[in-house]
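Bench log. Compound arrived from synthesis this morning; before running ITC I wanted a structural hypothesis for how nickel (II) ion sits in the protein. Inputs:
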Amino acid sequence: MSLRHIITLNDPKLRLVSTPIERIDDLLTRLIDDMIETMHGAPGIGLAAIQVAEPIRLLVVDVAGKEDPPAPLVFVNPEILWQSDDRNVYEEGCLSIPEYYADVERPASVRVRALDRDGKEREVLAKGLLATVLQHEIDHLDGLLFIDHISKLKRDRVIKKFQKAAKRAGEGSHVL
Ligand code: NI
């Protein structure tokens, strides 16, 4: 297993719509293992394949508590089948938008269908944090970020902040 590099807000790849996975082969299970290790190492509670620059419909999540053993879940080609009318607000962050957090309102429960790492179809009725994480990660597969759910003013501010930081890093670096 190895850690994968997580791309951040300035990378236009984050806006790609990821394509469905047709085959679960060794290459894919290796990517799944790498993504789980990368998510745990970050640390984070969810990671979509596009965040490690792979534009395919795959995500991993782990909402186990800090004191509990890790419990990673794998979702291949996830689809939201149903979402509740009642909504929840969580303060969200994203490994691709480090050190930025904002309240996001989403449906409180969702039913998601996906394949697991063995290619078995599974349906999950997710509530609470898992519901939020799954919606956040499925958004990634459609090129959406959690900042798309906040006001334009706040969004523009964080985008500008990342652009400035990238510019500063560029000016200070020397390519040898
Ligand atoms: Ni994210």
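What the model suggests: The chain is about 30% helix and 25% strand. The radius of gyration is 16 Å.
ITC booked for Thursday regardless.
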